[in-house]
Write the structure tokens for this entry.
Amino acid sequence: MAEEEAPIIEAGKVSKWLTENGFEHEFLEPDHQGVEIIKVNRDFLIPLATAVYAYGFNYLQCQCAYDAGPGEDLVSMYHLVKVSDDVDQPEELRLKVFVPRDDPRLPSVYWIWKSADFQERESYDMYGIIYEGHPNLKRILMPEDWVGWPLRKDYISPEFYELQDAVRLAG
């Protein structure tokens, strides 16, 4: 049986514009709604984010993070929207920044989109991603003295250790 070739995915409008203007990035497959997704290296996040802001993406609808799996990268994702008058279907864009779990830092986009404030704090609190330059990067959901990053896939709850120890000592 012959191997099936993966379909060639054409870069989206924003990706083409970024390439024409010399911004280093990687075009990823659009999401299920056809929203363009762009992968950017953390070292180029601020110049690229500034460029897409100037291009018209003036609203950070959502910043979130996820863990790609134990031993894999952590991902910070930005869902951007072009907000303007008399637009029925605003243009959307997603940026993804992959950071190694042993060095999970990248620059904060707070100074471009103020709505990143509490969202970056939540990603820090749950995954331990450090947003350098954020004006108030501290825990937002967990107690200040909490140890670890509870949404990482390799996280083991302190209560689990206590339960394990209790079972071992009782047995």
Summary: The mean pLDDT is 91.
